[in-house]
Please model this.
Amino acid sequence: QVQLVESGGGLVQTGGSLRVSCAASRLLFSSYKMFWFRQAPGKEREFVAGITWNGGITLYDDSVKGRFTISRDNAKNTMYLQMNSLKPEDTAVYYCAAALGRTSVIMRKEWKYDYWGQGTRVTVSS
Model:
């Protein structure tokens, strides 16, 4: 069965950096748009960033724009989120998601997400 497995979370100080990864298995990875979401304690899951199937177009939430970078390596079936200048409000469980589509359109809220990972926890200490 298809799996999305996040890794790379951990504890980091304010202003630090962290890179989280999402490895896909049993998935034609290059046919999917990929996304990062996060859910902080007591809050709803929110969009962080998205990337088209070939990495040509990226989209970010305003709260992370200029600090986070989403990327993907289709040869490795892996997506990344490089997080710099981390703030305590970035503390959350980070989830990756996949939506089928080889298009140049990417949105904060897709009509359907086909697969989700289990999440990796990121904690930013003040």
The two ends are 40 Å apart (CA to CA). The first strand starts at residue 3 and ends at 7.
